[in-house]
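Quick one: structure for this chain?
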Amino acid sequence: MVQTMGAEQQTFDRIVGTGFSGEGDSLSTDELFEVLSNRRRRYTLHCLKQAEAKTLPLRDVAEQVAAWEFGKTVEGLPYDERKTVHTALRQLHLPKMDDVDIVDFDKQRGTVELTDKAAEANLYLEVVEGRGIPWSLYFTLFSACSGLFLFSIWQGVAPFGAIPKAAGVAAVVVAMLVSSVAFLVESRLHMRVGSAGPPPELDADN
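Got it. Here's what it folds into:
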């Protein structure tokens, strides 16, 4: 499990990305993880990927990021919360994202847009919910338990020795298929950065 530092960065286990590559201009996994280990930058990318317009005013991005961060509607944000996020994005986060070619940030015009590389990429957060475990750990435990289960059947260890071998294998296969489908559905609908609704980590908390 990849560990990140800071309370705000402990809501996900892994970032899985596809599409962040290009000849002579690839974004390494370490660079990608460093940029997206920060919550506000993840929220910013989620906002930009959701937007229908190619270019967004910084003000609109900052307001949406602040709304997610403080758990409010955009209309319900007080000035100080809007200002805090706007300043942080303008001075720190967007320049960093621009440096690694995730966004094109025009500081003078106050606009931001995704680069083609970022727009075409698919990113998934493996969210660690307070009530569950990450999928990577789930499948590791599933494999270990399945192996022990089948070993017990083959060796005749009570009470598993009474289970027919074919039935034991079939049970493991069905359980794996169900788990795989559940993982696929969740990852595509809820864990993808830019999917409908709030960011994946917020969706997992609700």
